[in-house]
Amino acid sequence: MIEVISEARCIDCAICVDVCPTNVFDADSRGRPSIARQSDCQTCFLCEAHCPTDALFVAPLSGPAPEDSPLRDEEALAREGRFGEYRGWIGWGHGRSPGSRADRNQVFTLRLRALPPPEPVVPEQEGPRP
Amino acid sequence: MTGRVRRSARRPVAVPARVDVLVLGGGPAGTWAALAAAAEGASVALVDKGWCGTSGAAAAGGNNLWFVPPEGEARERAIETRTREGGFLTDPRRMAAAVARTWDAVHELAAAGYPFPDDEHRPGERYLGSLQGPEYMRLQRRRVRRAGVVVVDQSPATELLGDDDGAVVGAAGVHRQHGNAPWSIGAGAVVVATGGCAFLSGALGCNVDTGDGALMAAEVGAELSGMEFSNQYGTAPAFGAETKGLMYQFATYSRADGTELDIGGMGRPALQRAMVEGPVYARLDRAEPELHQKMRWSQPNFFLPFDKMGVDPFRERFGVRAVLEGTVRGTGGIAVPGEGCATTVPGLFAAGDAASREDITGGITGGGSHNGAWAISSGSWAGTAAARHRPRAAGRATPAGRAGLRPVGRPRGRYDDVVAAVQSRVLPLELNRFRTGASLRESLAVLDPLWEQVVDGLAPADRPGTHSRQAAAMVAHARWMYSAALARPESRAMHLRGDHPDTDPAQTHRLRVRGLDDIAVIADRPREAVIAS
Lengths: 130, 533
Prior knowledge:
The structure holds 2 protein chains of 2 kinds.
Chain A (H helix, E strand, L loop, with lengths): L1 E4 L9 H5 L5 E3 L5 E3 L10 H5 L5 E3 L15 H6 L5 H6 L14 H9 L17
Chain B lengths: L17 E7 L3 H12 L4 E4 L14 E3 L9 H12 L6 H20 L18 E3 H14 L3 E3 L4 E6 L5 E8 L5 E12 L19 H8 L4 E2 L6 E6 L14 E3 L5 E2 L6 H10 L2 E4 L8 H7 L1 H10 L8 E8 H4 L3 E2 L13 E3 L7 H4 L8 H19 L9 E2 L15 H12 L2 H4 L1 E2 L1 H20 L10 H20 L9 E2 L13 E4 L5 E4 L10
Parallel strand pairs in B: 1-2, 1-8, 2-5, 8-16, 18-19
Antiparallel strand pairs in B: 3-4, 6-7, 6-17, 7-8, 9-15, 9-20, 10-14, 11-12, 11-13, 13-14, 20-21
Helix pairs in contact in B: 1-4, 1-11, 2-3, 3-11, 5-15, 7-8, 12-14, 12-15, 14-15
């Protein structure tokens, strides 16, 4: 769930308010966002992807992080390079090239097709008949 | 709220009073529908509960497509394989059309500038079979706006409008970032592309998918189909809910004490049986080190949660759990028997995960390939057909919404309690993945009174939006899926009945479902359990 909006990095553009698919943020009259409904956060990381200044951190937990968790500690997260990580991978922002150019899912879907099917197949007597 | 004005409130979108085609939902299916309708010259509005570009299961993940080149017999073989795996419930004609449409559509995306990767096997060519969600949906939003479609974000539809002859003539909803101000749009035809229902399980990108569209459609009399095939679960790390499955092909699984489980790769039913018995751990140690970077670039947000937690999934064991993906990656939804994905109600079309996907994937999951292709093809077909639909003279438009919207009794429940009650019957593997007649009846005995409670009315939610309506849609879905599951006393594809473990050739038919207060399940005509040679 969303845990941190960095006051220092945020430029009050409120793009996160606009793009959040589950309406987690509110903005004040200057456009400064706040986490208004954390429990509605679906941990999709898309606010991180769209934030132009890497000001947001979404913890990968399906519930809120505990009070003393490093996942809520802005300084520690900044030290570890945790702000803007997803945006970096997908290659959004100035001077980056799209991460989709490095997409190699082709390799993994091909490999998967060579493995046994994931679901039981309908028994033989129902298979092709002459 | 004093002194707090949302930025978007300063620039409201003008909602047209009337359009030729109204698309509900701004994921892949909705955007392809809007593009197809606009290409026919129709005036089009696209309304989304969230934001077109991030909303829907596709935006949050990767999208491998059912992508088969036209050369040789590859398409025939792909269709035969899926027909068999899907339990002989597919429609070969629609499968062929979906494969063909998807092939054309990805070439349109390439022309529109999607940055496809190089093909691993054909030097100098791009590989067009995989779409990264954020990139894909950002492009789709641009294309839709460029086509002149009016995009209305953060404005969930709550109900359809019907005329005196029973045709759909528009929809209504609220602007949830504008104090729930109402909107209403008259339309020659409506395309429902609001996604499936994942019961707020937290599955990646799926909490927007609460089944709102199917509820609206059922209220105007639309039929559903395949609701028994609604129990798809994704594997996720236990600390979160990132249900991205592809990389688990490299997993070995073990118990807490380190005992290795004899479950290869993704082997879902076996893995899920083990999860019912006790905690299961995974490690992606079957991936050769030279693959690691390729894996990361292919599915960055599979690895992102591990990086954030400081866990190395290639070397360290991590707990895994099964998260319900419901009809999002199951196959049940609004029945679309008509040409162009027309529903059984005039003026109403359905596309993407809101629609039944039995046509192209039968009773097994369309996740990881077929659903992406279905979103593109069903969206395109529905948009074209909706634009060509000739409505009769517009009469009086009556709003059709009921449960969770227009209370009929004394409110006697809270949103959060209703959601928790539904989830307690649909999320557990032992109740939904592994079903018995007894457990299904027991669940319905809980869910039926819950429906009456929602019809009577819920206490007002403490946040903007349409939460009561979402609760109603989830109760309806749970009842539809278990009613259909009870009417299929056999095991077929993803539907497993412990009391009927075998597939019964006499049940090679689809199950149609209709109704809300009283639910009717109707067996469709039998299908041939053979593949034409």
